[in-house]
Structures are given as structure tokens and as C-alpha cells.
Automatic annotation (TrEMBL):
Keywords: Signal
Species annotation: Luteolibacter algae
Segments forming domain ABC-type transport auxiliary lipoprotein component: 26-181
Signal peptide: 1-21
InterPro entries per record: ABC_trans_aux
Protein name as it appears in the record: Membrane integrity-associated transporter subunit PqiC
Gene3D superfamilies named among the record's database cross-references: ABC-type transport auxiliary lipoprotein component
Pfam families noted in UniProt: ABC_trans_aux
Taxonomy, superkingdom: Bacteria
Length: 186
């Protein structure tokens, strides 16, 4: 009797451990490796996210007024920091400079331009697209004079119905946002 109870408990434990789902972590990707060397100084940040986007889970918009968090599909770090990292690498590559900083930086001494970004939407839609709605501003330093500003609204097709494809689409959106910003600095 004791042997069959122990065998049942062991079987139950093994089965329940096998059913546990573990989180998958995702990170946004830049267009290539970080640039090196000197060049114009660019500071990226702050990057401000809308509260409903600033989550550890991936956010899926299932209808115009409904959002769902992807259970067990998490960002590998803070989303605002990840966006700033990708933007800074992409901008450095486009502007051919390794003199890139992300907010907060120690001093403005080596920075010629600051790029501030507000992201109001950064989600996967139920329409098969990743969406971004962001405004950005370029300030000349040290005067902090506004050089350029714009709103960037775009969408990118999600190639496959999987979360990694959604994150790849978001990375491509950030690449296009970087291209728009860098064209105003050149």
C-alpha cells in the first residue's frame, strides 16, 4: 500500500513538473553591431513609454479598446532601455559615429545632439501588423535648441504567427524610426 502511494505521488510530481511552462524572453535587435570610433556626439533619451506599453510582457492589441499581455512571453530587460539601445546603435551606424550615449549620461560635453522619444503605441495588432506611434525631438547641445521634431506612425507585417516574429517586426519599425531621425541630423 505504502509503495503504491509513493509511486502515485512520484508520478504526480513528475507529471506536474512536465506541465509547467517557463517564460520565454525576447530582445529587440539593431541593424548590426555597435559602431566604433569618433564622430558627432549623439545622446539618445529619455525614451518615454505609454504606461500600457511599459510592461514586462509583450502587449497584444486584440481590438481597438482591448489589450492582452502575452503570458510567459517577456522582454529580457526594461523595454525603454532596450528601445534606447537599439535606436542608439542604429543611429550610430547611419551617422557613422561611435560617439553615442544613452540616457542618462554623465555630461553633455561630448554630445552634439540629444534625441528624446515618446512612444504612445508599440504593440502587435490582431490585424497581423506590429504598430508604432512615436514622437521624437532633436535638440542641439549645449544650447538645448530644438532642431527638429516629428511624429512617426508606421506598421510592419508580422511574418509568422509567433512572438519572435512580432518582436522582429518591432525591430524593423525601430530601424525605420532611426532612419527618419538620422535623415534630419545629416
Amino acid at each position: 500500500m505504502f509503495k503504491s502511494i509513493a509511486l502515485f505521488c512520484l508520478s504526480f510530481l513528475l507529471l506536474s513538473c512536465g506541465l509547467r511552462t517557463y517564460p520565454t524572453f525576447y530582445t529587440l535587435s539593431a541593424d548590426g553591431p555597435s559602431p566604433s570610433g569618433g564622430g558627432i556626439g549623439v545622446g539618445v533619451g529619455p525614451v518615454i513609454l505609454a504606461e500600457y506599453v511599459d510592461r514586462e510582457n509583450l502587449v497584444i492589441q486584440t481590438s481597438p479598446n482591448k489589450l492582452e499581455l502575452a503570458e510567459n512571453h517577456l522582454w529580457a530587460g526594461d523595454l525603454d532601455d532596450s528601445i534606447a539601445r537599439v535606436l542608439s546603435i542604429n543611429l550610430g551606424r547611419r551617422l557613422k559615429t561611435g560617439n553615442i550615449r544613452t540616457y542618462p549620461w554623465q555630461s553633455d560635453g561630448e554630445i552634439d545632439y540629444q534625441i528624446a522619444v515618446d512612444i504612445r503605441e508599440f504593440v502587435a495588432g490582431n490585424d497581423g501588423y506590429a504598430h508604432i506611434d512615436a514622437s521624437w525631438r532633436i535638440y542641439a547641445l549645449p544650447s538645448r535648441k530644438l532642431v527638429a521634431s516629428a511624429t512617426f506612425i508606421d506598421k510592419e507585417a508580422i511574418q509568422e504567427e509567433e512572438y519572435e516574429s512580432f518582436v522582429s517586426a518591432q525591430s524593423r519599425l525601430l530601424s525605420r524610426l532611426s532612419a527618419e531621425i538620422s535623415n534630419r541630423i545629416k
